[in-house]
Structure prediction request, 311 residues.
Amino acid sequence: MKRSILGALFLVALSFSTTWVSAQFAVTVGVTIRTAPPAIPVYTQPACPVEGWLWTPGYWAYDDYDGYYWVPGVWLAPPRPGFLWTPGYWGFVGGVYGWHAGYWGPHIGFYGGVNYGYGYGGVGFVGGEWHGSVFRYNTAVVNVNTTVVHNTYVNNTVVVNNNTTVNRVSYNGGAGTSSRPTPQEQSAMNENHVAPTQEQVSHNQTASRDKNAFASNNGGRPATTAMSKVGGERFGSEGHSAPAPIERPAGHTNNQAAMAHNAPAHEPRSQMQQPHPQRQQPHPQPNGRPHAGGQRGEGPRGEGEGHRREH
Prediction:
C-alpha cells in the first residue's frame, strides 16, 4: 500500500475529527500506516556524558520495506540554550497511524500522552530545567555522570511509584492513550519551533540501516535500545554493551527517515556547538529499582550504570 494513498485517506479522515487533531496532523504527519507500532521497550538510560546535553527518548520509526524500527534514545546537544525537546509520537485516527514529528522549542508541547520515561511521563518533562543558559538535571529522574555534569538537583515529588499500572503503549488514539493537549501544551504547540537537528536526522538514518533495529527481526525487543551519544557506545535493555549493527540488504532504502524528522519549523535550524565528550564512569544512583507506573508526569528512577525504564 503506497504511502501517498494512505496520506490522502488520513487527511480525509482528519477532516471529521476534532480541531486540535486536524491542526496538528495536517502540519506534522509525514507517514501513515495501518499497523500499530510495537510497545515501548523497557531499557536502561546511559549516563549523560556532557554538561548541557539533553536526553531524546527512543521511538519506533517506520520504513516502507521492513516496517517499524527502533531509534535508540540518545544524549545530544540542543540547537540552542533554553530549548527543550518535544518527542514525536504516533496517532491513530480514521483507521490509520500517522507520525507527528518532534521539535525543539522553549516549552514542551503535546506528545500524545505516550510514556517514554526518563522525565517524559506522558505530559511535560520533569528530568531537568533551564536556568538561563545552564541546564540543571533532576537526578531523581535522569542519569548523569557527575564527574563532568555538576548542575544537578533532586526532586523526588515528580516520581510516582505505581506497581499496578502497566502502560508501554506507543501511540495516541484507538487502543492507545486517550490524552488530549492541556492548555499549556496547546500554547507550546503554537510557539516557534526548530526542527530536529542534523545529528538527530543522522541518528534516525543510522538506525534505519540496522537490521537488528526492525521489529520484524527483533519481535519488539531491539538489541540497541539507547546510546551515550550519536555514533557513540551502544547499550542493550539491561544497560550492557550492545552488539554492532548488522547492515540491511543493499537496495533497501528508508524513505521515511527524513520525513519522520521533517517537523514544522517557523525559524531556521541552528546547531549549538557541541563540547567534546569525556570518557568517565557514570555516577551510581541510589534507592533501587524504578517505578512500574504509567502515570502522567512521572519519571522512572534507577541505579548502577544507568536508569532503567519500566512500566
Notes: Residues 3-272+281-309 form one domain.
